Amino acid sequence: ISNNCTACRGTGVEMGEETIEIQIPAGVEDNMQLSMRGKGNSGANGGAPGDLLISIEQKPHELFSRDGMNIHYDLYINFADAALGYQAEVPTLTNPVKIKLPPGTQSGKIFRLKGLGLPSVQSYDKGDQLIHVNIWTPKNLSSEEKSMLEKMRQMPNFQPHPGVEEKGFFERMKEFFHG
Fold it and tell me: Distance (Å, rounded) from C-alpha 82 to C-alpha 104?
């Protein structure tokens, strides 16, 4: 060869960039890989181009956390709403929905919204949205609020008396494994 190509230096391959659009399927998860056949580097000696591998990196959401196809949402309510019952509006991936919390709702209670999670990559299934109830405890109280709480502290209904449903996680596991 008397005159080598200055762009490829005789290799037959030039460096360059290409912008392509890709379809990311609904439900992909962090660390999944997608591949696009024939969109990778050129093959050696005029061979077929390789595949482009795309690694998915999921950004954290400001309201929801993800567990597979299910999404989790923390709902914070005050003690009065937990004791008296409450109708709360919670965000979903589409539109806010209203849920009814019954009187006596305990902190840690989980409500399930069927089918409001994420879709599966391999099927038509959808996950659920799980709402975790957290009772907010104020840190700074006025003297009037302290006085009211001191009165309530001595009342019989404000004394803890957990039943079977309110047993702790470890107590339930102990019963499960030991009969």
Answer: 6
Token couple for 91:
């965000």
Q: What is the pLDDT of residues 77-109, one digit of tens each?
A: 999 999 999 999 999 999 999 999 999 999 999
CB 126 within 8 A of CB 69: yes
Q: Who's near 97: CB < 8 A, 6+ residues apart?
A: 89, 90, 113, 116
**Distance (Å, rounded) from C-alpha 162 to C-alpha 171?**
12
Tell me how long the chain is: 179
Helix (H, G, I), strand (E, B) or coil at 66: strand
**Mean pLDDT over each residue of the chain, to the nearest integer:** 83
Percent of the chain with pLDDT over 70: 81
CB environment 25-37: b (16+ within 10 A), e (fewer): eebbeeeeeeeee
The larger pLDDT score, comparing residue 162 to residue 34, is at: 34
The answer to whether the CB of 104 falls within 8 A of the CB of 83 is yes
Phi, psi (rounded to 5 degrees) for 85: 95, 155
Q: 147 phi and psi, to 5 degrees?
A: -60, -45
